[in-house]
């Protein structure tokens, strides 16, 4: 009887765990203007909020052409920026690299060929040690050069995550056509897999009295647009492709994204299993200018420092099934040669000061100790946790023999 009960219990637990596919990470990554942050800004953000990822904005071209730079002015190897990024990564932080934005010149317009643009993308990603490229499109670009560059880049970085951040036209319409829908349709024709379509839910038209309702409605409209582009995907799969990026505090159109709207967005995202959340920008996430005008250094509303960051960070514990992965999905299965017992797993002890703890069973999972509590994490893109370097790694490099993997 005991053996039968254990077998049933094991089967139930295994069925639940095997239904969880590799999580797309980072799931929460607000934007930071790299040219405006101090050297210790990212570490301070991590220590005060627990946020483990930021999106560094923006890498642009220069007046000399296809030369990547921060904001079109500062060199990519600017020590103030890179020292801050390195310190952030040393304590477990991750970064997404963003190109484009509201200003120019775009790399996607100044580079003359797909090969040249792919090389420039790779150079910028390597400098900040990132494998997630976000392209924020707010101006016309040479679409085919950009998409072919992404195809080339993915052959060089197979685990690359590609996200497009696109302007929203209205909460009842979704993203714009020429700089949004048309590019996504072309990406499908050319064969570029897109991981995240990030709706820039700011400065759009709405008749709704609540800006929180408007942001969610715009995201639902984006979902309907994605259904037209990828009709073979389920509704659930398409929600995991959606990103939502509001502008915290006062927007240029007079609307205000309030603290309660952030909480509303988090709850809706949990219900729909939204793939990515961000906001513009962490540099504005303070109450330094309540009632003031639009500023890059404050939200213009009354709030606590990093209050939006702390709210968004609550969504970081969610693991969204990556059902639109650019890599082949691998399902973890029990090792038939592995001896299993009915002993319950030992509780995870975060009181020792150790920040990362290997999972007791599975290679692609680990625990992150933060504020004295363990948080279950999962490596992206079918990597495995490597305790030797305290980071996710390729299975052949990690050489794990103490866990289950296929």
From TrEMBL:
The organism's superkingdom is given as Eukaryota
Q: Which residues form the Chitin-binding type-2 domain?
A: 347-405
Q: Which UniProt keywords apply?
A: Signal
Residue ranges of region Disordered? 323-345
Q: Where does the signal peptide begin and end? A: 1-22
Compositionally biased region (Low complexity): 326-341
One Pfam annotation, family name? CBM_14
Q: Which InterPro entries match?
A: Chitin-bd_dom, Chitin-bd_dom_sf, GH, GH18_Chitinase
Q: Which CDD domains does the record cross-reference, listed alphabetically?
A: GH18_PF-ChiA-like
This one is known as Chitin-binding type-2 domain-containing protein
């Amino acid at each position: 009887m005991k053996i039968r009960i254990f077998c049933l219990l094991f089967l139930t637990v295994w069925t639940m765990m095997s239904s969880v596919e590799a999580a797309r990470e980072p799931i929460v990554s607000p934007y930071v203007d790299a040219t405006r942050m101090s050297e210790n800004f990212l570490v301070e953000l991590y220590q005060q909020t627990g946020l483990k990822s930021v999106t560094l904005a923006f890498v642009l071209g220069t007046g000399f052409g296809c030369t990547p730079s921060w904001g079109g002015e500062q060199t990519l190897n600017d020590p103030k920026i890179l020292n801050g990024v390195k310190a952030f990564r040393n304590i477990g932080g991750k970064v997404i690299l963003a190109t484009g934005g509201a200003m120019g010149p775009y790399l996607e317009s100044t580079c003359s060929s797909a090969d040249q643009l792919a090389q420039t993308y790779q150079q910028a990603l390597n400098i900040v040690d990132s494998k997630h490229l976000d392209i924020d499109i707010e101006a016309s670009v040479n679409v085919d050069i950009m998409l072919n560059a992404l195809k080339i880049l993915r052959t060089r970085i197979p685990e690359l995550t590609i996200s497009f951040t696109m302007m929203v036209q209205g909460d009842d319409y979704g993203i714009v056509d020429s700089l949004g829908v048309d590019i996504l349709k072309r990406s499908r024709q050319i064969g570029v897999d897109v991981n995240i379509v990030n709706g820039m839910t700011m400065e759009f038209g709405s008749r709704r009295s609540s800006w929180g309702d408007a942001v969610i409605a715009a995201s639902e409209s984006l979902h309907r647009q994605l259904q037209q582009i990828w009709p073979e995907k389920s509704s659930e799969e398409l929600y995991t492709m959606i990103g939502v990026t509001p502008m915290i505090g006062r927007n240029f159109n007079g609307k205000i994204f309030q603290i309660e709207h952030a909480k509303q967005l988090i709850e809706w995202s949990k219900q729909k299993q939204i793939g990515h959340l961000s906001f513009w920008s962490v540099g504005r996430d303070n109450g330094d200018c309540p009632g003031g005008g639009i500023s890059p250094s404050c939200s213009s509303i009354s709030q606590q420092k990093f209050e939006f960051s702390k709210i968004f960070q609550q969504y970081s514990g969610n693991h969204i099934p990556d059902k639109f992965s650019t890599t082949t999905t691998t399902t973890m299965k029990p090792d038939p040669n592995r001896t299993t017992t009915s002993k319950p797993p030992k509780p995870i002890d975060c009181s020792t000061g150790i920040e990362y703890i290997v999972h007791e069973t599975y290679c692609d999972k680990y625990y992150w100790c933060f504020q004295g509590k363990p948080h279950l994490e999962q490596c992206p893109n079918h990597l495995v946790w490597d305790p030797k370097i305290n980071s996710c790694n390729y299975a052949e490099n990690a050489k794990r023999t103490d866990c289950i993997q296929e």
